[in-house]
Structures are given as structure tokens and as C-alpha cells.
Amino acid sequence: MLKMLSTQIGGLLAQIAANQEEAIEESARLLAQAGAFEGTVYFACFDELQAIELNALKATEPFKKLRPWTKHVEITDIDRVCIFTRHANQPDALALAHQLYDAFIPFAVVANDKEEDAGEMADLAYTYISIGIKKGLLPNELGERIVLPHTLAALFIYEAIKLSYDEILAGV
Question: Is 54 helix (H, G, I), strand (E, B) or coil?
Fold first, then answer.
């Protein structure tokens, strides 16, 4: 089973790299608009994807210019936000997206839904990255699909964004 899991996860990450490369680069550039100047970068992470913010803040190589986001943070037009949510219709994530959009603050979104299925969230976002997990990666003994590694895939996307973001900041 471990070999099957490894193969399936490798395939998932390769699919993200192939299909989301442009959106990842655009998201890094968007966040660098704040990171390279006087703005602040916020990650608004919902449900299990809160692990992304924890990693970005506490890792050996933290995300530069990132501050913790809460509902009480005042986000200005020089700041940038990346919303990480498993579902594009998650109520708190969607409310934040509306707030940012109404304030003319560009933001990125990382969500599981395909962009064409993400509805309002994809329409409001400046950039949208799909995690792309359609069903569980492995079958169990009952024939059901199990293993939905949303956090692992989102962490891969985070690391890809960070690589580009750091390159941009190094050139400024």
C-alpha cells in the first residue's frame, strides 16, 4: 500500500506542477507586490489548511513579510492575501474574498475545486490555484476511495509559491 500511496501522491504533485505553474507564478508575483515594498502578506488559512500558515511562520525558512491573519486584522491596499481553503464555498473564506474584492485588494486563492467549478471564489480572486483532488487516492477493502491529502498538496503549492516569491524578492 505504501508504494501505491507514494506513486499516487507523486502523480498528484506532478499534475499540480504541470497544470498550475502559471497560476503559482502569478500568485508569487502578486504576493511580492507587498513583500518587496511596505505592505504585509497574510495567509488566511481555513480548516485543516491552517497548517500552511503555521509552517510559513515557524519553518526554518519562514515566509518573508508574512503576518498572522485574523478576522480583526486591518488589511490595506498595500497588503496582499492568499486564501487557503479546501472548498471554494467555505463561508468564512468566501466572506473574506468579498471583503477584499470590495476593498480593491487583490488576493490569491488556493482551493481544491477546479477553477471552473469554484464559482464566486474564482471570479473574485486575482489568481486561483486548484489543488485538484477529485477523489481519494487509494481504494480500501470496501472499494471506497480513501486518502485525501489536501494539506500535503496545499503545502506543495505553498513551497512552489515561496520559491518564486523568494526569487522575486532577491531581485528587488
Answer: helix
Residue 35 makes CB contacts below 8 A (sequence gap 6+) with 41, 64, 65, 80, 165, 168, 169
Cα(42)–Cα(37) distance, rounded to whole angstroms? 14
77 CB neighbour count, 10 Å cutoff: 11
Asked whether 129 and 82 are in contact (CB, 8 A), the reply is: no
Residues in the chain: 172
Residues forming a β-bridge with 41: 66, 80
CB contact at 8 A, 145 and 138: yes
Say how many Å lie between the first and final Cα of the chain, rounded. Answer: 46
pTM of the model: 0.95
H or E stretch covering 71: none
Tens of pLDDT, residue by residue over 7-30, are 999 999 999 999 999 999 999 999
Amino acid at 134: K
What does the block give as the cell for 37? 515594498
